[in-house]
Amino acid sequence: MKYKLRLPSFLAKDRRRQAITAALLLAVGLATIGGVVLATSGSSDSPEATATPVATSTRTPTPTTPPTEPTLIDGVLVYPDELAEMETRLPLAVMLDNLATGARPQVNLDKADLVFEAVAEGGITRFLAVYWRNDPGIMESVRSARVYYLDWAAELDAIFVHWGFATSDGPADVQSAISRLGLRDLDGFFYEEPLFERDPNRASPHDGIANSGALWDQAAENGWDGPPAIVPWTFKEDDPARARSPDAATADTVDLGFGGPFFSDYAVRWTYAPRTNSYERTMGGAAHEDGASGQRITAKNVAVMVTDIWSADDNTAHLLYRTTGEGQAVVFQDGVAIEGSWEKPDPSERTRFYDAEGKEIAFNRGQTWVEVLAVGDPLSY
User: Fold this and answer.
1) What is the mean pLDDT of residues 4-15?
2) CA atoms of 88 and 226, how far apart (whole Å)
3) Alpha-carbon distance 40 to 216, whole Å?
4) Contact predicate 363/68, CB 8 Å
5) Helix, strand and coil in the chain, % to nearest 5
6) How many CA atoms lie within 13 A of 318 on its CB side?
7) 3-class SS at 231?
8) Which of 17-21, 74-78, 95-99 has the lowest mean pLDDT?
9) To bridge 111 with a disulfide, which of 57, 134, 181, 227 should be the other Cys (CB 3.0-4.6 Å)?
């Protein structure tokens, strides 16, 4: 089938109108083409003009200045304004439970600057977790105090946070020790929400929760402001190449038995992770993970101090630790073991660690765990 072009009715059979319409269409087309040429070629007296190029940005990005200020407890570098904000408050030294059947996993333990671990009684360990650089929010499970943890809080000018305390007619009495040391403390028995509350999903007494923001607010209301009077440890940068040195005392694993064998619920293993140059924690044969983040607990330094432990002889199971004086120690960092000693002249002074030549050991920046063993407790590396 063939199709014919059909013209509008007013043009059909009218040659004169067809000619006029064609002329008009040609004029419009030429005018349009001329406008495009003028727009792209410039004016008639500038035949060689070209289009103006689009401007592009040549601004150089401002380089990010690295942080320069070391914090007092874990040595992590921060910016000056961050350090100034931290110095308005005092550290929180928080007693955390570690009972295998009720207190695990601890919440926000991985955010602590420093952790001390020692036996409370019956071979069951308890943690003193110190927070200053980080604001963890909630901390769980908060438990009662023992006197020797007070000496470690005192050396950090910290606010001692606990839920109850050991009472005794002898040297294990916590209230008299707090008074003697002049410690500032916040006890869950005497404060309610928002400082302290109970976790409905855990059984008492392993259900204690403390809130760091509310604790710091209460401290400020009490006039307990910073900066803290802390004489810091010496800090250094990571040095994972140390483990490859021919004379290095490498330590890929560290096993500790608190008052019992390596296979108890409170036995600890630290395993060196070259990828992060840190030690990963296993407890009771399982990876120790934080209850909030789900992350494995790790440490840049593991400092083991060996000391004397004895019964308080107050008709209870309370223990006493020798926290002052000196004793044997081993510090693990960069995949190596540094054998030496620890010293603490009095309760208010820092516990310091020295190598076999008597030189103070510098710690890697980041979280440190101080593992406090009794003389004779198992230690293998």
Assistant:
1) 36
2) 5
3) 70
4) no
5) 20, 30, 50
6) 22
7) coil
8) 17-21
9) 134
Strand partners, 114: 130, 368
Can you name the residues that pair with 159 across neighbouring β-strands? 92
DSSP 213: H
Residue indicated by tokens 């604790």:
215
Contacts of 222 (CB under 8 A, 6+ apart): 184
Tokens in use for 106? 């601890």
The 10s digit of each residue's pLDDT in 290-339 is: 999 999 999 999 999 999 999 999 999 999 999 999 999 999 999 999 99
Please tell me the distance from the alpha carbon of residue 136 to that of residue 298, in angstroms, as a whole number. Answer: 16
- Run of H or E including 216: helix 212-221
Report the pLDDT value the prediction gives residue 17, as an integer from 0 to 100.
40
If pLDDT is split at 50, 70 and 90, which confidence band does 60 have? low
Of the options 3.40.50.1260, 3.40.50.300, 3.50.90.10, 3.30.365.10, the CATH number for the domain spanning 69-380: 3.50.90.10
107-159 tens-digit pLDDT: 999 999 999 999 999 999 999 999 999 999 999 999 999 999 999 999 999 99
| Contact assessment for residue 366 and residue 299, using Cβ atoms and an 8 Å cutoff | yes
Q: What is the pLDDT of residues 342-352, one digit of tens each?
A: 999 999 999 99
pTM: 0.83
- The C-alpha atoms of residue 215 and residue 113 are separated, in whole angstroms, by 17
Burial profile 102-138: b = 16 or more Cβ within 10 angstroms, e = fewer? ebbbbbbbbbbbbbbbbbbeebbbbbbbbbbbbebeb
Q: What does DSSP say about strands 352-355 and 336-344: parallel, antiparallel, or unpaired?
A: antiparallel
End-to-end CA distance of the chain: 98
At 259, is the pLDDT very low, low, confident or very high (cuts 50, 70, 90)?
Answer: confident
